[in-house]
Amino acid sequence: MVLKRLLNQSPLKDIYQKVEQGTRITDTEALRLYQTNDLYLLGVMANMVREKKNGNDTYYNINRHIDYTNVCATTCKFCAFSRFEGEEGAFEFTHQQIAQKAKEAFEREHITELHIVGGLHPTYEFEWYEQMLRLLKQTVPSVHLKCFTGVEINFFADKYNMSHEEVLTRLKAAGLDSMPGGGAEIFHPEVRERICPGKATADQWLQVHRTAHKLGLKTNATMLYGHIEKYEHRVDHMRRLRELQDETGGFQTFIPLAFHPDHTAMDHFARPSGMEDLKTLAIARIYLDNFPHIKAYWIMLGVRLAQLSLAYGVDDIDGTVIEEKIYHMAGADTPEIMTVQDLRRLIREAGRQPVERDTLYKELKPVQEPALSK
Ligand code: V47
Ligand code: SF4
What we know:
The protein is of the alpha/beta class. Helices cover 44% and strands 13% of the residues. A 4-stranded parallel β-sheet has the order 5-6-7-8. The structure holds ligand V47 and iron/sulfur cluster (SF4). The site of ligand V47 has 21 residues, from strand 6 and strand 7. Iron/sulfur cluster binds next to loops.
């Protein structure tokens, strides 16, 4: 009743009706959603889509991040993580150190996934990456290896003079199981050329993912928001992803990433507000009708907002993570690890059903239902 009355007075009534009928919204309509401050109605629409796709289920996984090096040949203006070779704060983990971290996380935390990315290292041979994957497959054979952003794959292709397909085929043969969604930033050249001029273009990033999907590798997609971009750029970004997803169906999850400005060349920006975060997640859920999942990465969003986002279209809150560097070097004050109990409790408290998943969203039965504590 109340909703009906509100709708009758709302300039978004036509969009609501489309969403209710499951009709795709246009770019102009997505922009109109960005221009509203009616978070209540955005939440109702996003929730409708979320519950149609995923019911009450809210996914998490048990994973570990390993950033194998922060030495990087380029400098993106939003990045607090990268260093030049030999610069203070630069690190490079050896294969043995990486395998040790993986083994410990498997034995102690029972991880099912390793999320492995790094800077664009100027001197490693291609075999370094293949050997890392092979060693990990020997050390923790049952663990899914979700590794390398589209930017890293494009860098390998350039540097070692191979096509995207050759790079991905070799890495897949060495143990690569899927790819994370990093490096997408904002596709539109007006923004991309200003914030990260030295790395893969939008077309190259999209082409890497197209190729990965063709080779049977599932991937994710991100969008870095809350800096110099305008709402038009965000909609353009999501349009390119929606088009590629129509073509391949290979994306699993969309993950909007809020800009953390500390210690970056853009440290004069404020972090996006909670309103902006929830709006961005909700609009992503409404617009990206062909993406199965929307993820709130609790590391960047904060645990409290990640929990609230479960009423704004989100059905996945990522995993235990363990030892996050990219956001913490840019000033994130979230913890670096969440236990399974923490993750399940925050999902339950939001009135949702926690579901442990593997990387490909197959439901896993938790070893035992952890006791709920207040
Ligand atoms: O590509 C870097 C972003 C990304 C900052 O696929 C920053 O499951 C905000 O892609 N402020 C890496 N963002 C993280 C990423 C990711 C995270 C979790 C899950 C998945 C997945 C992917 O982080 C980078 C860049 O877009 N980033 N610096 C910063 N200062
Ligand atoms: Fe290097 Fe990635 Fe940081 Fe850009 S975002 S400077 S490519 S590590």
